[in-house]
Amino acid sequence: MVKSNNTTRNKLIETTGKLLQLHGYSGTGLNEIIKQSGAPKGSLYYHFPEGKEQLAYEAIERTKENVTNFIKDSLARYDDPIEAIQNFIYDSAKRFEADSYFNGVPIANIVLEISKTNDRLRELCRKVFESWHEAFADKLKSGGYSDEESWDLAMTINAMIQGAFVICLTRQDSKPLLVMAEQIPVMLIKGK
Amino acid sequence: MVKSNNTTRNKLIETTGKLLQLHGYSGTGLNEIIKQSGAPKGSLYYHFPEGKEQLAYEAIERTKENVTNFIKDSLARYDDPIEAIQNFIYDSAKRFEADSYFNGVPIANIVLEISKTNDRLRELCRKVFESWHEAFADKLKSGGYSDEESWDLAMTINAMIQGAFVICLTRQDSKPLLVMAEQIPVMLIKGK
């Protein structure tokens, strides 16, 4: 029973994540989540009594964990922080070109949509970015950057990636991410 | 007659811009545009036979001109490109804190919403960013940076600002923009 409950729960969260990617928060409806997940209506309210907000919360929470781990694993492939971060951005560019950039809730989209109307989800998105910043900052600290430098550079790197991704979408190519990757040694060698 | 037509036309574009800011592209309806602008229904179709897409197009086009001019005017206040760009970002941080950051169509929001579904508006948003990049690049060129360096740095600066703005929204403060401003001399002195 627990297993089947967990399966339904997972399926509902997963479906919510996919629909948020396609239609944003206000464009995602509970009926569509039920339809696409194949879960009975009653099970949605059983698992998520607070409805759509709770489902979105859990889907974002899951994206936070998944992407943080993905960043950590990716950075762990190189000892040198500069090489590690530069290669992380090159890989992001490759994923953009392969149209497989993102597998989860698109945080920037959600932030731009809900930051003024939903404090609970906004606060969660803040924590998502902080978790990513921490992953970059830890790598920088391991390379000898001070705590403050590491945090500022980590935030800068995330801002560059988020912004580059928006510019990539307008151009339908990954050039902006490649340009950002080239700036990394300039920023980090000087910062060190 | 021409004047009154132009007033109605302007009012419709202005109202569309405001509604795009509040509700995004799919959340903005023609009925709401008519209601908020006070324009008669017939005049909307007279001025904008293609309906919402055409209205959004013109509102984005107007944002492109306004923001490009705003960037140029702001950068013209300082001779040195580093000082000029750094102060532009400090001013953006102040505007964010005063909740007057943006007066027009929020381009990043629109891009994230429509990039996969509306090629005409996506292409226009690409031109908006290019126009902003050109404003930054011209300032850098005037300070002795090469053409290629200027374009890459201009794109990086815009990406940093766009990304920082998203992080600002999650935190409800302007710290990310202030952190980006501090990175400008690092990036530009090295790049020169």
From TrEMBL, chains A, B:
Annotated PROSITE patterns: HTH_TETR_2
Domain HTH tetR-type, residue spans: 6-66
Keyword DNA-binding: yes
DNA-binding region as annotated in the record: 29-48
Keyword Acetylation: no
Coiled-coil regions listed in the entry: none
One Pfam family linked to the record: TetR_N
Stored InterPro entries: Homeodomain-like_sf, HTH_TetR, Tet_transcr_reg_TetR-rel_C_sf, YxaF_TetR_C
Superkingdom of source: Bacteria
Alphabetically ordered keywords of this record: DNA-binding, Transcription, Transcription regulation
SUPFAM superfamilies for the chain: Homeodomain-like, Tetracyclin repressor-like, C-terminal domain
Protein name (Swiss-Prot/TrEMBL): TetR/AcrR family transcriptional regulator
Organism field: Paenibacillus ehimensis
